[in-house]
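Board notes (copied after class):
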Amino acid sequence: ARDGSAAVTVAAAAPSLARPAALSRLSTTALDAFLDFNAAIGTNSGYVAVFARDGRVVHAHSSGYADVEAKLPMQLSTRFRLASMTKPVTAVAAMMLVEEGRLSLNDPVSLYLPVAASLRVASDSSPGEPLATEPLQEPLTVRQLLTFSAGIGHENDPSPLGRMWAERDIYACAWSLELRVNRILTAPLYDQPGTRWRYGWTDDSLAREVEVASAQPCA
């Protein structure tokens, strides 16, 4: 939604409802009214709430708009931007591929994403000095992507390296995960892989790895 986001997301196909077994009619009526009210007063543009028990949906409700300006109603099939909640989803997808033997935690990332073979690490990002880099001491691995120890950063850093990351403008490639990750993996890393935990755009690279290893798009 352009002016807000939903509380819960669901799959693209609307679920088939089972007979409610865990929620009373009073509680579901109160919940639906609460969401309808908050959408009406603009707390968020819209909501989708889904409850399941034993693998079956027992209650689902949508309120408000998926697009406020276009007056497009929120639906059970509406897709949402989940921001950082995509991280556990991507990690589970990667571990499923590990379990199936299609991916190994110790695999070099470059085995699936050739652009990672040319990665370098910033060795000095002092203000006023040219950015110096050095080669990787060891190849970047899937395990390091999963544990956020890949050395991948983001643009919220006032250093020369941070400014270089900001110039990558990865969100200009929002329509293509491949192009986004190509921009990410052509910037110098903040640290040698495996040496430090760092929050950043690591999960984008892991998602692209999942795409390639599974031969299925993540979007």
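Comment from the instructor: Helices lie at 25-40, 86-99, 142-146, 160-167, 177-184, 202-214. DSSP finds six helices and five strands in the chain.
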